[in-house]
Specification:
binds (2R)-2,3-dihydroxypropanoic acid, seven-stranded parallel sheet, 12 strands, Rossmann fold
Length: 320
């Protein structure tokens, strides 16, 4: 029997591509160029399955225009806001994602951003690197202590739970807001706040770990940011769409927020040029899951979903 044809639009880990080539007739992208909506539509006529990343957009119009040949979109991401699930579902296209396997890597980056924003890491590096470090005094580059403070976590799924464990390592008290309260075993002493406002009020640090959906877009806006204690620090490793970026800039400018650590932006790649004017916004280019181990794990999880589908079984991470 001939192998199903699989399009892998971005360059994945060598181990993932090797495994994919064993099972599928693969169309790869060795120079890793991005793809337009038109290319995605055209390519869909040549393939049975697509293994995309969050950089490939399957919005309503792309989903409607995909060839009927494509049977499954096995995402190499946990976030699926680049996919219009309803439109893809209507086309009868199966969609999967890669939960769980990137929780440790993403929580590491969230902790890095939290510490870096609190202790002015990027600013300090810029100072030393540029040769502008010319004096030292006890009042020099004073930041915020993390140990013993309160962290608020929005979205206590897998990544949020790992973040809570890491934060406990810094003796932080953990508070969270989630649609439903976790069991005591999962909560590990974390305090659940039924309302977002109640969480915001106690969050010296606020870390976002929920998906971007129509309900959560702009969740952090002028009104919600104002409810954080003065001097709070915001960390976002989830999705840029959760934050109203103008409101964030204003909150930083006014001094209400002491700092922010961001790995996600409304516009990616590129981010928001207004952020670069503020030394106290510590930014990374969406690298939450970018470790060798996690890239392999994400690729393998996507391939597991494809293998199950083509074996006539239910893919473990089927969303529609
Ligand atoms: C994810 O998996 O959603 C990460 O943001 C990388 O795409």
């Amino acid at each position: 029997m001939s192998k199903p044809v699989l399009w892998i639009p971005r360059k994945l880990s060598a181990n993932t591509e090797k495994r994919a080539l064993d099972t599928y007739e693969c169309i790869l992208n060795p120079d890793d160029h991005p793809h337009s909506a038109q290319t995605i539509i055209e390519m869909s006529a040549q393939v049975d399955a697509i293994l995309p990343c969050h950089s490939e957009l399957f919005d309503e119009s792309v989903s409607a225009a995909l060839s009927a040949r494509v049977k499954i979109i096995a995402n190499h991401s946990v976030g699926v806001d680049h996919c219009n699930l309803e439109a893809l579902g209507k086309r009868g296209i199966v969609v999967t994602n890669t939960p769980d396997v990137l929780s440790d890597a993403t929580a590491e980056i969230a902790m890095l951003l939290l510490l870096g924003a609190a202790r002015r890491a990027a600013e300090g590096d810029r100072l030393v690197r540029s040769g502008r470090w010319t004096s030292w005094s006890p009042s020099f580059m004073v930041g915020q202590q993390v140990s013993g403070k309160r962290i608020g976590i929005i979205g206590m799924g897998k990544v949020g739970q790992v973040m809570a464990r890491r934060a406990r390592g810094f003796d932080m008290s953990v508070h969270y807001h989630n649609r439903s309260r976790l069991s005591p075993e999962l909560e590990q002493g974390a305090i659940w706040h039924e309302s977002l406002d109640a969480l915001l009020e106690v969050s010296d640090f606020l870390s976002l770990h929920c998906p971007a959906t129509p309900d959560t877009r702009g969740l952090l806006n002028a009104s919600s940011l104002a409810k954080l204690p003065k001097g709070a620090i915001l960390v976002n490793t989830a999705r840029g769409a959760l934050v109203d970026e103008d409101a964030l800039v204003e909150s930083i400018r006014s001094g209400h927020l002491a700092a922010a650590g961001l790995d996600c932006f409304v516009t990616e790649p590129g981010a928001n040029p207004a952020f670069a004017e503020h030394e106290n916004i510590f930014m990374l280019p969406h690298i939450g899951s970018a470790t060798r181990d996690t890239r392999d794990a994400m690729g393998f999880r996507a391939l597991d979903n494809l293998d199950a589908f083509f074996a006539g079984e239910q893919p473990r991470d089927r969303l529609v």
